[in-house]
Write a structure and sequence with these properties.
Blueprint: E1 12-13, H1 24-36, H2 47-66, E2 74-79, H3 82-90, E3 99-103, H4 108-121, E4 125-128, E5 146-151, H5 164-173, E6 177-181, H6 190-194, E7 200-204, E8 214-219, H7 220-225, E9 236-239, E10 244-246, H8 264-279, H9 287-303, E11 309-310, E12 318-322, H10 328-336, E13 340-341, E14 343-345, H11 350-356, E15 362-366, H12 373-388
Parallel strand pairs: 1-13, 3-4, 3-5, 5-6, 6-7
Antiparallel strand pairs: 2-8, 7-8, 9-10, 11-12, 12-15, 14-15
Amino acid sequence: MSDFDYLDKKNIYLDSACQTLRPQQVIDMMDEYYHEYNSCGGRVKYNWGIKLDEKIKETRKKVLNFVGKSSSKYTVAFTLNTTYGLNLVLNQLPPKFKKIITSDIEHNSVFLPTMTIAKRLGIPRIVLQRSVDGSLVYDKNDLSESVAVLNSMSNIDGRELVNLKEIANDLHKTGGIVLIDAAQGISHNQKIIQESDFDALFFSGHKMYGPSIGVIVIKKTLLAILDIGFIGGGMVEEVESDTYKLISDPDDLNSRLEIGLQNFAGIIGLSASINWIKNYQQEGVTTQAYQEKLLRFLFDELSNIPNIKLINSSPSSIVSFYSDKIDAHRLAIFLSAQNIMVRSGYFCCHYYLKNLKKYPPLVRVSLGLNNTKEQVDFFVKTLQTIMTNL
């Protein structure tokens, strides 16, 4: 745990689905920006700004490489967070689509904007079911000329959109597009994303061991047809009294989504977090292998605790449960008294958890690369003790 040595060892953080902790390397890189070249990107000719511009360009390349896409087809824009990015693109879509498609297990960041965009465009909104394995249940006719907005991984129980590749192909055959909320999935399984021909992808650095910054990976063809209505500094190449001209350089189309001054320290920190994830090793194994070991241990141990009702049907880095013997918020407080941090409630998935499934508030345990088997074991034993003494 050397990358997290600044943490107090008594604290056990099990809420990475909300936001991951930051390894020291990410913090150091952001400090380096503030200390050594704190300047405005894309605007200045002095050395600090030139260095920053080079690092921003490098970060865009790293993002594209991370999601397996080419700069000839896609561009990368930085924004506030996943929610802001989704709203930014959805609210600038042209009125050419016939339906909005989403699923029942979406975060409110997807569920609510799809309501508003359907109303704005005056088109129907269809909520489709996701199966136990995470795949979208649909008929090809459902997708005709549609905008589909779906998560690649659920923040409820870690279900993944395993048929994303097929969904994208079917949408494109009928003139539709697919927008992916990758906030939860981006640091866990890039393969699903890399193998799909998505039109736009949205995620946040704070869920992948980086700073709070939003990222949009978008096809240049989609970006070119957006009805740009959010306008500000850094987006134009000419301004007259009553008219303006957006930057038209194909290598700088990302500027159309980057309104005003950006979070430059965040961009630098994101670059460091991508490096950290790609080079991570713990106990001599890769990121994927280490997470797999921990999540299986967690799932198996929780499955054996009496009076715990798991939402998950299989192991995942995100596990949610409830108990008829104790309120989830009260249980979270009891765990906090032992320096164990978990989430309680509906996790911004009110429609699915509260109204569709009628669950009471849940406890969510989400693992990160900062966690160890010893921490998970302590959590499980503490939970067992609490449940036994109720």
